[in-house]
Design goal:
heterodimer, A: alpha/beta, TIM Barrel, 11-stranded mixed β-sheet, 11 helices, 13 strands, B: alpha/beta, two-stranded antiparallel ribbon, globular
Chain lengths: ~325, ~325
């Protein structure tokens, strides 16, 4: 679609994330570490259970133990690990130094710098320096820009600043998250997603460069969902030409260890289980016979049939629609 | 200026469909020639046009149709055509495939029903012959089925078998429009409440076919309205009539005309007032639709457009 890519995965991806609205900053890394340790202690082999990539959302806090744990995952052969950090991390920590020691030229590992345009709508000199340094390390990285309906106007200037600055991947990340959903006003509507897409297309055409543009996970071209409805979990394995069996492509473990399909914002009724209460592998294996699975399939099917097929726009925030609909349903 | 446009290439048709929205049949004396159309395509592309849908009448009755389509493709326009399928030969299907044209064929039901509605025996067989050739070439085609209230069950069971056997890329279920010759058969029309049956049919068919092909519908639900439609104006695309008249939506009342293909992209002097009144039609329709559980956008706009005078200066707002 005109050179703008969509972040999707062919095989299951595990997302470890914190829920910043529920925990204090100091707890955050400890919890991610706890999650990784718990998975480790229960003998979870990511490759054996079919997880091909792990996306760790670290925010602006980290410690050396986490990096060591990630090193271990890399050595175990997990093909893709992305560590998402706030790009302001350099100002307060020795992250870069530690990272350089551990991960120089580790091709399985990728960094994703997360930047919200809400508070700092420009790219600072320090950030540019960070990108240069990480580029020198040989670690692939991307810049994920959190865009809000009222920060779209600064997007063009930011892109202008980063073009030719060693960044090859730019992920456009329309804001989402529990606090935004509750406030509603700062969320993109479905028509606004399409406007944003067109806007980025225009910028891309105007500014020819090697920069690759992506949309964040869960935002997909409508035609992709329609031609491959297994991505919307409505096509049963019995009829799927690719033999997909409706297992979630994204599995999210939040701070308290709850495991969800697609997004941890879906609500408790869609929860697979909790990794602190039972073995992660077992949670996954028993999921297809669970009530949460049936509920999730009902939700996905509802969204696909009622909102995706006849959507007049070519870009669909599928995960966001699942979240919104699940919350509406829970009110009922 | 516009990114998508519907272009009625001719009023001439080799069939006499009972429900034809355009009341097609005879060739009009004032239809555009090849040069005028090609000139418009160039201007349209230059001023931001992205895609065009050629419709009629039956477009394959125009001898220059290949030339027009080739030119649209040369102008980098995504090209869509809608045809009754009876004049599709191997030669022009090959041509359409080569030019990456999106082809929609109108089929309304099993042979007895389709031929009855289209006013000519044997049309269903002609279409099937073309469809088999599409399949042989592995060239995706799409189907539009006009839904008749009094034949709905026949149509749905036929569609299920048809899709399983002939694998169209997509099927669009469209309630017949109460305009043109469609006005004459009130029994076949769906009321607002009855439109729910098309909605339910689309979901039921989708499930039975395991979501392949895609079953679209020209029926919008209250929920879709809430999620996707902040207004109607941006969803209504302009139409060009066979005479070259440019209108902001599908209407055969030329007092809604805002320009011509010849003068494009300039709009006529009265166009500002017409567009203003059209906006009012869209707003009124939006308010009406927001109270309905199901509605058909084109029909609700058509209905309200009749209530307003396009050029009257009185501000309805």
């Amino acid at each position: 679609m005109d050179g703008i890519y969509f972040k999707e995965v062919e095989k299951a991806q595990l997302i470890l994330k914190e829920d910043s609205s529920k925990i204090k900053n100091n707890d955050r890394c400890q919890t991610i570490l706890e999650i990784l340790n718990t998975l480790d202690q229960t003998g979870t082999s990511f490759l054996r259970i079919g997880i091909q990539s792990i996306f760790i959302i670290l925010g602006n806090r980290y410690n050396k133990e986490i990096l060591q744990k990630v090193t271990q995952l890399v050595s175990e052969g997990v093909p893709n690990i992305t560590l998402q950090i706030n790009s302001q991390i350099l100002e307060s920590t020795t992250f870069y130094e530690d990272f350089a020691k551990q991960f120089s030229h580790q091709k399985q590992l990728k960094l994703s710098f997360y930047k919200s345009l809400l508070n700092t709508p420009t790219i600072t000199e320090k950030e540019i320096l960070l990108y240069d340094n990480v580029h020198r390390l040989g670690v692939p990285f991307s810049l994920e820009l959190e865009v809000h309906p009222n920060t779209i106007n600064v997007l063009e200037n930011v892109i202008k600043d980063i073009i030719n600055k060693k960044i090859f991947e730019l992920v456009i990340s329309p804001v989402k998250g529990i606090r935004w959903i509750d406030e509603q006003k700062n969320l993109f509507s479905v028509p606004e997603y399409s406007q944003l897409y067109k806007y980025i297309q225009t910028i891309k055409k105007q500014r020819q460069s090697r920069l690759k543009y992506y949309f964040r996970h869960g935002i997909l071209p409508k035609i992709f969902l329609l031609q491959h409805p297994c991505n919307a979990y409505v096509c049963s394995g019995a009829y799927c030409h690719a033999g997909k069996r409706g297992f979630p492509q994204k599995i999210v473990i939040n701070t308290v260890g709850d495991v969800y399909p697609e997004s941890d914002l879906l609500g408790k009724r869609y929860k697979f289980g909790n990794i602190f209460e039972s073995n992660f592998s077992q949670i996954l294996y028993s999921y297809k016979n669970s009530r949460a699975y049936s509920e999730f399939i009902v939700l996905s099917r509802y969204v696909f049939e009622n909102l995706v097929i006849n959507c007049p726009f070519s870009i669909i925030p599928f995960t966001d629609l699942l979240i919104q609909k699940s919350r509406e349903m829970s009110y009922v | 200026m516009f990114d998508f446009i519907y272009f009625m290439l001719t009023n001439e048709c080799n069939l006499h469909c009972r429900f034809c929205y355009a009341d097609s049949g005879e060739l009009s004396f004032n239809e555009l020639d090849t040069y005028q159309i090609k000139d418009f395509l160039e201007k349209y592309s230059r001023y931001g046009g992205q895609a065009i849908q050629f419709t009629g009448g039956e477009i394959f009755l125009r001898e220059d149709i290949m030339d027009i389509i080739s030119h649209a493709r040369k102008c980098n326009l995504d090209t869509y055509i809608i045809t009754n399928g009876t004049l599709l030969t191997k030669e022009n299907i090959n041509f359409l495939k080569k030019n990456n044209v999106h082809v929609t064929i109108g089929i309304d039901g099993p042979a007895w029903l389709h031929d009855k509605m289209r006013g000519k025996e044997g049309t269903y067989t002609d279409i099937l012959r073309a469809i088999i050739y599409f399949q042989k070439l592995d060239f995706p085609y799409h189907v539009q089925t006009l839904m008749f209230y009094n034949y709905l069950d026949h149509q749905l069971s036929w569609l299920l078998d048809f899709c399983k056997k002939y694998h169209p890329g997509s099927v669009r279920l469209a309630p017949i429009s109460p305009q043109g010759r469609g006005k004459q058969y009130p029994d076949s029309h769906f009321s607002f409440n009855q439109l729910q049956q098309i909605y339910e049919a689309s979901i039921s068919l989708s499930r039975k076919l395991h979501y392949h092909p895609i079953i679209y519908r020209n029926v919008i639900t209250k929920e879709e309205m809430r999620y996707f439609y902040p207004n109607f104006r941006e969803f209504l695309k302009p139409w060009v009539l066979p005479s070259g008249a440019l209108l902001p939506f599908l209407s055969f009342n030329t007092s809604w005309q805002i320009g011509t293909v010849g003068s494009f992209p300039e709009l006529n002097k009265k166009s500002q007032q017409i567009l203003k009144n059209f906006n009012t039609v869209c707003k009124v329709s939006f308010l009406e639709a927001s109270k309905k559980d199901f509605f058909c956008l084109f029909d609700i706009i058509q209905k309200n457009a009749k209530l307003y005078s396009p050029q009257r200066r009185t501000c309805y707002e």
